[in-house]
Design brief:
This protein has a two-stranded antiparallel sheet with strand order 1-2. It has one helix at residues 61-66, and strands spanning 5-8, 11-14. It is built from one helix and two strands. It has one domain. The chain has 76 residues and is mostly loops.
């Protein structure tokens, strides 16, 4: 049998109050026509970001990525 539902708050809520026994193994497959650009991980890249511990990363990104000389711009 196939049950339909929607994700609400990160939990799949089955439509029309359908209930499955606790512990039932399920397979969830998103419907293609309900996905959109907001579902693409490129739009959620900030969720993967974390602290690097590199205080001048924005200023010297080319140094850290490509080995260019570091830029100081008057900072010590």
């Amino acid at each position: 049998m196939v049950y339909e539902g929607k994700v609400t708050g990160g939990v799949v809520v089955l439509a029309q109050g359908a209930r499955l026994p606790e512990g039932t193994a399920v397979k969830v497959e998103p419907l293609e026509d309900e996905t959109g650009p907001d579902d693409d991980s490129i739009y959620r890249v900030w969720e993967l970001a974390g602290p690097t511990g590199i205080p001048d990363l924005a200023l010297n990104l080319d140094h850290y990525l490509y080995g260019h000389p570091k830029v100081n711009h008057g900072r010590q």
